[in-house]
Amino acid sequence: MANTDLGYLLHSRPYRDSSVIGDFLLQHHGRVSLLYKGVRKAGKQGAKGRLLQPFSPLAVGFEGRNELKSGRLLEAAGPSVFLVGAQLYSGLYINELLVRLLHREEASAPLFAFYQQVIQALRTEPIEPILRRFERQLLAELGYELTLLWDAEGEAIRSQQHYLYVPDQGFVPTSPLTLEQPLRTRCFSGEHLLAIERHAYHDSEVAQAAKRLSRLALAPHLGDKPLHSRELFKQLSP
């Protein structure tokens, strides 16, 4: 029996002569991989294949019990969100995080709704705050929520104190002067942590600290394989 759902294409790759394997984020099924056969041919099937674009709401139907399921229905379910430049690369970064980190077929209605809000916001709002909020939301979804109000010992974060970020433990009070250089990249001021908790990114130092913290928090889950989308951002550098 076929399932139907609303979703977005996160990533696609050709399969054999005329088919496509797509990774989707679906409202009621989470991340799923679907094989759509013949959609790179001319004619009616080819028209269906042209719908396989990121940031476009899609009605999809599929069946099967394996990790790779057979795609059936594929229809537009609303207007596409057109992103360009840094907006586009940011959207692709978000999609790549979801493909790399989400477990298969674990639905989360709040994450799906947040994803919809994020790709709309990328068109009109400052990008960096959007990415930091999404990274925090995704970490929480994975069970690794960043707690920025309390240190690893359960004491309130103090603005004048410095803290060492330790994955799976949290923030340990420290002094930057006692740390070797490699560890200083994991050191944050309490003032910056409290500002990050408030999403107060108007200060450039807070914004840079938030980006550094997100990378440190995501690194253990991403592993050593680099993110392709980060390479795209380098094309924007003068």
Which keywords apply here?
238 residues, alpha+beta, OB fold (Dihydrolipoamide Acetyltransferase, E2P), 2 domains, 5-stranded mixed beta barrel, 3-stranded antiparallel sheet, 24% strand, elongated
Note down, in words, how this protein is organized:
The chain is an alpha+beta fold and 238 residues long. It has two domains: 139 residues, OB fold (Dihydrolipoamide Acetyltransferase, E2P), CATH 2.40.50; 75 residues, no CATH class. Helices cover 37% and strands 24% of the residues. It has eight helices and eight strands, in the order E-E-E-H-E-E-H-H-H-E-E-H-E-H-H-H. The strands form two sheets. It has a five-stranded mixed barrel with strand order 1-2-3-5-4. Strand 4 and strand 5 form a beta hairpin. Helix 2 packs parallel to helix 4 and helix 4 packs parallel to helix 7. The chain starts with a strand and ends in a 5-residue tail after the last helix. 26% of the residues are buried.
What is the spatial order of strands in the main beta sheet?
1-2-3-5-4
Strand content: 15-25%
User: What kind of assembly state do the chains in view correspond to?
Assistant: single chain
| C-alpha geometry | elongated
List unreliable stretches of 5+ residues: none
For the record, what is the CATH homologous superfamily label of the largest domain? Nucleic acid-binding proteins
Output the CATH class name of the largest domain: Mainly Beta
Measure the end-to-end span: 53 Å
The chain-level mean pLDDT equals 92
CATH topology of the largest domain, anyone?
Answer: OB fold (Dihydrolipoamide Acetyltransferase, E2P)
Strand element count? 8
Q: What is the percent of helical residues?
A: 25-40%
Counted by DSSP, the helix tally is 8
Structurally, how many domains make up the residues?
A: 2
Order of helices and strands: EEEHEEHHHEEHEHHH
- CATH architecture tag of the largest domain: Beta Barrel
Main structural class: alpha+beta
Gyration radius, to the nearest Å? 20 Å
Largest sheet: 5 strands, mixed, barrel
